[in-house]
Amino acid sequence: MENLERYINDDELSDADVLIKMAVIHYQFESIHPFYDGNGRTGRILNILYLVLKDLLILLILYLSRYIIQNKTQYYKFLQGVRDKQDWESWILFILIGVEGTFIQTIDMIQSIKQVMMDYKHRVRSSCKFYSQDLINNLFYHSYTKIEFIEKDLRVGRLTAVKYLEELRRLGFLKKQKWGRSNDYINLGLYKILVRREWSRIINI
């Protein structure tokens, strides 16, 4: 583990590209298997943190875990290939393909969110007298909002916050979902982008 820490932090040990080093680090961590449980999750998080450390990422927006989980059979096959045959090439290519595909998907998602945000901005502005940029920011900070969030961000009273949210629900921007005693207002456009259509049935959207 000490050698892995040095490899992560000392760039003089290898002049390989950062993405290749990330693949090597991930393999080494999974092979060391330092914890009783949670090594897979930790290893996937380590990928992202390493890219942040090396200034390839500013925000934690590269969700490589989905690629690994969806290709779990190949993932373990290539890991074992390094152990048995020192087949680093197949393992590194597997990771690089995943990084490329994930970046493409992430960029597509960001562009889709920007489009939906602009659509909401124009439609809310033309439909609601209470439109403000703070309101739009609130709606897109999470995939849902609450009465309390509106009160805080827009600095309005509870009754006013309820009025705003109910009007947005009536116009089709939000869906009201009750969880126990709390009401969440789900941003339909953003939610569908984040979880895709197959998951929308969970809340009957």
Automatic annotation (TrEMBL):
**Gene3D superfamilies hit by this protein:** Fido-like domain
Q: Where are the transmembrane segments?
A: 48-68, 88-107
Catalytic-site annotation from UniProt: H33
Q: Name one GO molecular function term.
A: ATP binding
Which sites bind ATP? D37, G38, N39, G40, R41, T42, G43, R44, Y75, Y76
Residues of the Fido domain: 1-97
Task: Keyword check for Transmembrane helix, yes or no.
Answer: yes
Keywords, comma-separated and alphabetical: ATP-binding, Membrane, Nucleotide-binding, Transmembrane, Transmembrane helix
By what name is this protein known?
Toxin-antitoxin system, toxin component, Fic domain protein
